[in-house]
Amino acid sequence: MEVSILVFLAGGLFLGWSLGANDAANVFGTAVGTRMVRFGIAAAVCSIFVILGAVISGAGAAHTLGKLGAVNTVAGAGMAAFSAALTVYWMTKLGVSVSTSQAIVGAIIGWNLFTGSPTDTGSLIKILATWVACPLLAGIIGVLLFKITGKAVTWARLHIFRLDAYTRVGLILVGALGAYSLGANNIANVMGVFVQSNPFTTYGGGELFRFTAIQQLFLLGALAIAVGVFTYSKRVMMTVGSVLFPMSPLAAWVVVVAHSIVLLLFSSQNLENLLASNGLPTIPLVPVSSSQAVVGAVIGIGLLKGGRGIRWRVLGGIASGWITTPIIAGVICFVSLFFLQNVFNQRVFQEHAYVISAPVMEKLSSEGVATDSLSALQDRRFERWSALREALQTLDPPQPAFEKTIRAYAMIEPLTVARSTLNRLSDTSFSLAQRFALRTMTGEHFLHRWRFEADLAARSAAWRTLPASPENKLFNRQLKDQREEAYLLFQD
Amino acid sequence: MAVQLFKRTKQLELKVDEILDLVSQSAMTFDQAIENYLSEGIGERFNMRLDQMIALETRGDELGLAVELQMYNETLIPDARGDVLTLLEALDGILDSFKSVLFYFSTEVPEIPEELRQSFDDLAKLSCAGVESLVLAARAFFRDVQTVNDHLHKVHFYEKDADVLVTKIRKEIFLTELPLANKIHLRFFAERIVWISDMAEDVADRLTIYAIKRTI
Fold this sequence. Notes:
The structure holds 2 protein chains of 2 kinds. Chain A contains 19 helices and 4 strands. By secondary structure, chain A is mainly alpha-helical. Chain A folds into 3 domains: 3-342, no CATH class; 354-410, no CATH class; 415-490, no CATH class. Chain B is built from 6 helices and no strands.
């Protein structure tokens, strides 16, 4: 393994550490803040379940890449991870609970700006929307749950010590589940980009006793998260758990459950599938911040109790942190990439070349693009998108509406289904039928990714997208992730 | 781990229940001891009640300390720990008062005229009734906080009755032909007995606040 990979891996591990220091507070902050669970116990349970979540559930196809997967070089991804981590660390040092996922998105936008890559405005709008929707929903759920729990406790007439014991066990159980999902959902952001340059090898045989290379890589990331939990999360836990609003232990439990419900509603593909299969309307899957969910639930319960105990100044600090986090991460990433590229001569961005070949013309025609004027550019190679774009604008008539489509199909992303790579298929999420289809393509080379995917679909139904419907949504999303995985596996 | 936790919790519940039982028993023992003293002075039955009271108070001290240590060591009920400990200490204070009043009777042997005996007996009964209602309120605080007030108003009721009665006793004492030293001596005992109902009322006041805190 190259030394530079290790250096960039350190960026991922730093992000893992920051994630542990900051996000562990969301699952155990209220428990520790209300002094119901000792920090040592909370940190131990949190670490164990983060590791289990990362190693068992984090290595699945849907999670392997993570948000940083959009960044197409290890150096760029490492620096984006480092920038996000630095931002989260800084905020954590100030005792502010920030959103790690938003720091990552901010860093990616910084990378986009630096490299001139287009930023998905839809994602940006989603982030802005979650600043309002996520805390609001968590607050509403928190209030409802608090009322229901209060009624249930009154009805059950539990002894004060029995209620205390149940609340403690409840806080640890909910915290453990939260830590498991924290590990499963976030490990990809910490280690996902290093999957392709994984230094580990798979141990053991059979399905039960196999410890795959990805699992080992994710274990390393999870250990970084665990170190973050133990070394730095206590302060944020106290902010979430007691400084923002002094809570009763039962309220603390309600907050963690409300936060988990909000995360589940917005991130569970299984729930979406369940709703879809029963003909119910599905909830859009958007990346919500666990920090915002926790703060929303705390404020909801605080308002229910009259709002007098809420420390609005602390809340203002946290809320302004949500806005500044992605901005700071983006700026740090932009500046760091400049130095990385110009001072350390590292490639932070993989520029794609473009060619409008005959198959591309054919494909564009089938997609409804008027190819007559494009023939002037046929078989010309453009080394970067800006050059092709300029050429497209000189066409008569220009085709601004189809720029995105032309870019997608003309992009050169060479890949070869090499025999040596096929030997690593056991480490992938592909089904037997999918693996078989890939093996039938041994030695084949593709200039465009879409041609590779079309060939796969032609060879096996297991690689074919199903008609768009709520029932097929989950399958199609998984297939999309698997196609991405296949491309990353075989790319030249 | 969870099984151990619930086992320890159960033990703690039993200890708190036992403390409340002890306070209730001490009220009954005190009532009996005063009756015994008024009917036959310092006799075998009074001494037996005094021994019972000493044993109850000693056991109460042991249990109180054990509960306090466990609550601190295991950082139990962090939001209500202070309230529970203050409540238990106040109940222990009542136990102490029962014992000390009986000790005063045992060592100072006040001469209570025939015409005042019934009033003294009634006063002791009112103080004990107040404490018994307080014990019920405390039990409710631990198990069924919504019903705490159903018992607390009785504590206030008995305390007011005891206040009226002690004023009447004071007047009666000073209307007698007894020497002034005896009069002051009797007044001291009447005030000691009514002081227990005052203590019960003080604890009841605090318990009202604790109950509100628990229901919010």
